[in-house]
Structure formats: C-alpha cells, structure tokens
C-alpha cells in the first residue's frame, strides 16, 4: 500500500534531464521544532527555488544522501546551517559533518541519520524522521553497468538486514512518484532481487526495475 505524506514533509519533484536543465533528484524538507531538515538538494533551478523559499526563521540542516550530481549539485547555490554527509560524499563537496555511525536527536520529531549498505553509491546515507525513512537511491543497482541491473550480493544482503531493523513504517525513494511506500513492499522487491543470486557469484544481474 502507498501512503500520502503529512503536511510537515514538503517536496520538490525529481526532474528528468532536458536540453536546458540537468537531471535532478527529489528534494524533501522536513519541518522540525527548531530547524528544517532538508534531504538532498537537487541539481536544477526548481530545487534551488524550493529550498530558498522555505521559512527563513528556521535554520536549514542539509543531509546529502550521496555524492551524485543530481542529488548534491545545488549545494553551492543554497544557504545551510549544518551539513551531514557520508565519507565518500565529503571527498566531493569538502564540507559538512561526516556520518559514519548512527546520529540521532529529537527536534519535535525523532531524527536519525545513518550510513546504509547499498550497490548504488559508496557511503550513502539514509535519513529518518518519525516513521518516515528517506532512502535516496540506495535501493537502486550499481551505476554505469547498463542492463541488466547489477546488485552486489553482500551489499544487498546487508541492506535488507539494515532495513528490516529500522523502526520506520514508510520508505521514500528518489526519482519515484511522490508517495511513501510501505516498508514491506520495498523489502519485498529487494528480497526478490536477492533471490536471483547464483552460487559463487558476487553480483546479481536482473532485469527488474
């Protein structure tokens, strides 16, 4: 089942690349008691305008899911108070607090930031606010492989176990419709991919989207 989001989660849609604008990931702004928590910053003007139009009475804390341009490209175009990045992302942006273990606090919502095992981008982070978990591109296959999709067996196994242990009820995935998915449905997809593994092979090749 799918779940529409509460009014304390604002959203700027992902956009496909065009001749005049780059590929841009979904951007989410979560209103806490003392700050905005902004997950990814996109790469196009619409995302910049969305972030800059947020209530300026609250500080802006930015979490970058990973270093790919469509998620982090606008960082120099916006103002932020705190920045949270994975170790690999820091190598690209040279700024922010590096998150290598679970980071959590209360801001009227239970806020958590943590590294997530995945095949898509080394050092990716997941962001959680209350019962909602923002995955970015973490459930996608390796970049640049082409077709069929390629998932690393060990990373996928670790990711499934990691997600099973989350208290979140709903998952949000970048480049998808603005809908929160039930936790079980995302896990079901990943487990179906994992079931395609073959003995003595480190990669799962599949055609599922």
TrEMBL record:
Metallo-beta-lactamase domain ranges (all copies): 24-175
InterPro entries xrefs: Metallo-B-lactamas, RibonucZ/Hydroxyglut_hydro
Entry-linked Gene3D superfamilies: Ribonuclease Z/Hydroxyacylglutathione hydrolase-like
Top-level taxon of origin: Bacteria
Protein's UniProt name: Metallo-beta-lactamase superfamily protein
Lineage start: Bacteria, Pseudomonadati, Fibrobacterota, Fibrobacteria, Fibrobacterales
């Amino acid at each position: 089942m799918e779940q529409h989001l509460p009014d304390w989660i604002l959203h700027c849609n992902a956009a496909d690349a065009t001749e005049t604008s780059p590929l841009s990931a979904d951007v989410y702004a979560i209103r806490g008691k003392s700050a905005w928590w902004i997950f990814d910053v996109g790469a196009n003007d619409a995302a910049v305008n969305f972030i800059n139009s947020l209530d300026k009475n609250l500080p802006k804390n930015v979490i970058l899911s990973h270093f790919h341009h469509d998620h982090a490209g606008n960082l120099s175009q916006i103002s932020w108070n705190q920045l949270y990045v994975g170790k690999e992302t820091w190598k690209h942006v040279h700024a922010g607090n590096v998150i290598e273990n679970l980071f959590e606090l209360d801001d009227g919502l239970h806020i958590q930031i943590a590294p997530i095992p995945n095949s898509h981008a080394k050092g990716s982070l997941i962001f959680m606010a209350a019962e909602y978990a923002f995955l970015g591109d973490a459930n996608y296959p390796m970049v640049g492989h082409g077709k069929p999709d390629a998932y690393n067996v060990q990373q996928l196994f670790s990711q499934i176990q990691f997600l099973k242990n989350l208290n979140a009820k709903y998952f949000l995935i970048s480049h998808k419709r603005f809908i929160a998915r039930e936790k079980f449905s995302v896990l079901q997809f990943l487990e179906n991919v994992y079931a395609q593994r073959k003995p003595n092979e480190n990669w799962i090749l599949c055609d599922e989207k």
